[in-house]
Structure formats: C-alpha cells, structure tokens
Design a protein that fits this description.
single chain, alpha/beta, Aldolase_TIM, pyridoxine biosynthesis, PyrdxlP_synth_PdxJ
Length: 247
C-alpha cells in the first residue's frame, strides 16, 4: 500500500500569521497520526515562513516516540542564516527517516520544479552521501519529464519524488490521460535503475486515486496543502481517514 505522509507546513503558516502557539503544530501532527497517517513531512525554509527549526526538533521527538517516519524536505544548497542552521545540520541533529532534497529558492511561493541533473549532479553527490551516512533515506524532487531522471541513482539517492503539480492541473482541466502516461513512464524509468518512487504536490482527494491507479509502484505520497484545506471543513481526523481509504 502507498503510505501517506502529512505535510504540516500549513498549520505553521496559520500559527505564524498571528504569533503565539495556536494552532499547535505538534497537536495537529499527533491528530494526523492518531487518524492513521504513516508519517509527518515538514519543509523548513530559511525565511521561517512556516515550519521552524524548533518545530523540526519537536516533531522529530514526536515521530520517534510514535515509531513513524519523519520526512524533512529542503534545499541542500541554501546557506544557513539566523534561525535556520541549514538542511544538513537539521538532519544531523534530528536524524529523520527520509530527507527529500528540493531545489527551491527563497522567492518561490512553493516548490514548482525538480533538479536539473546536468547542472546539479556533482554538487548533490557529496550531500547525498553525507545524509546516507546519517542514516537518512534520500529522495530527490524530480520533474516527470526530466530526460536525465536516472541520474538520481548515479548521485546515490534512494528514491525520487515526482513533482505532481502538472498532473493535478491536467486533472482539474478534465483530461489527465497524457500526464498519467508521462508519470507512469517516469516511475518505470526510476524503478528500472533501482529507485523508489514517491510523489507529491497538489495531490488531493479529488485526484489521488486516479494518480495511484495510473502510476505503478508509488511508495509514498506527501500531502499538505489540499489535506489541511479539506480539514477546515471536515476535521483532521476525518480527512486523514478519507485519504487512507483512497490508498
């Protein structure tokens, strides 16, 4: 079965908009796990716009105590700054089960593209090795149409995470057939060189089942924005349980 990791960034966005501690990211993560989620994902950014380094440590303790996966996303090339020690130091301090590397910049509203392996492979290789040495499984954010997708294996990654934004857009427009073919081909290419396949970005209850039916062997989906948005109407417990039923 495909596993669900809930991204709790949006809980932190709401908290940060007012200051203080409410809504409580830790309580929200616990509610997701109580409802059956298989893990928790966070994407701490250098500008601390949502999840902070302090949240990462607290969520690491929670997921360790619960015996579930903790997945930290981030740009491994982003330098440390005040309040943000850098992705690798955060991983070294908390030892997540998975580190998902994403080439996002400070100015991006959200992650919207994968790595350019022609440009990034040699810089990625030592960083992936360092994360592996910490005991982290490493996943690289990848566009389904990337002609050099297989290089993720060459740099030492264990998995890729397919950026599913284009699929979600096609599904919303009413015809995702071509996109599903593209993503299925990408998954098979990755699996042929020994890479596991994760997926994430704009997946929702409306489009998840079609995606998993059309794309073989997806090990994990990371879902945040849609899940938290839907939970505003139905509650976290019911929403997470609905996702689990779709899996």
């Amino acid at each position: 079965m495909t596993r669900l990791s809930v991204n709790v960034n949006k809980i932190a966005v709401l908290r940060n908009s007012r200051g203080g501690h409410d809504p409580d990211v830790l309580c929200a993560a616990q509610a997701c796990l109580d409802a059956g989620a298989h893990g928790i994902t966070v994407h701490p950014r250098p500008d601390r716009r949502h999840i902070t380094a302090e949240d990462v440590h607290a969520l690491s303790a929670l997921t360790t105590a619960r015996g579930v996966e903790f997945n930290i996303e981030g740009n491994p090339f982003a330098p440390p700054r005040q309040g943000y020690p850098g992705l690798l130091p955060l991983c070294e301090a908390t030892r997540p089960a998975q580190a998902t590397l994403v080439p996002d910049g400070d100015g991006q509203l959200t992650s919207d593209h994968g790595f350019d392996f022609a440009a990034d492979s040699e810089r990625l290789r030592p960083l992936v090795a360092s994360l592996n040495a910490m005991g982290c499984r490493v996943s690289l954010f990848v566009d389904a149409g990337n002609p050099l997708l297989e290089r993720a294996a060459d740099v030492g990654a264990d998995r890729i995470e397919l950026y599913t934004g284009p699929y979600a857009q096609a599904h919303a427009a009413g015809d995702a057939t071509a996109m599903l073919d593209l993503f299925a081909t990408a998954a098979r290419r990755a699996q042929a060189v020994g890479l596991g396949v994760n997926a994430g970005h704009d997946l929702s209850q409306a489009n998840l089942r079609a995606f998993l039916t059309g794309v073989p062997g997806v090990l994990e989906v990371s879902i945040g924005h849609a899940l938290i948005s839907e939970a505003l109407y139905d509650g976290l417990d019911a929403t997470v349980r609905s996702y689990i039923s779709l899996l």
